[in-house]
Amino acid sequence: MSFISDKVKQLAHKYKTNDPFEIADRLNILVHFLPLHSEINGFYKLEKRNKFIIINQNLPHEIKRFVCAHELGHAVLHPRANTPFLRKNTLYSINRLEVEANRFAVELLLDDKIFEDYETKFDILRENGIPYEMERFL
């Protein structure tokens, strides 16, 4: 999935940051924090050519950062995909879209990290606010 790595590098270089909130702002993607159900961390929405990332306001900051990076992945990699609709109304597997968004988030948040500075993969994840379930993307 080098196209994801290429896209992450392109965005980080263009905007001189790997902060997902700042990149979203520069791409004119509005980020809102709302009280969502505890099972919903966030979602990406395209409405009338306006892009939105909605994040559960009850999450810790580190998780909000990861969620923003993940949803930014959807906005950049699959801007017109409506995953809730696909999940509910079709047989289309959205797993590929979620895997790509997760890979995008991990690569964005770890863009300039030197892995030799960490003892384990879990240290890398913990110290960068990335959920342990993303270990497979390292």
UniProtKB/TrEMBL annotation:
Q: Name the source's superkingdom.
A: Bacteria
The record's listing under InterPro entries reads: IrrE_HExxH, Rad_response_metalloprotease
| Ranges of residues in domain IrrE N-terminal-like | 24-122
Q: Which Gene3D superfamilies match?
A: 1.10.10.2910
Q: Which is one Pfam family of this protein? A: Peptidase_M78
Q: Which residues form a coiled coil?
A: none
Checking PANTHER family in the record gives: ANTITOXIN HIGA1 (PTHR43236), BLL7220 PROTEIN (PTHR43236:SF1)
UniProt name for this protein: Zn-dependent peptidase ImmA (M78 family)
Question: Organism, per UniProt?
Answer: Bacillus benzoevorans
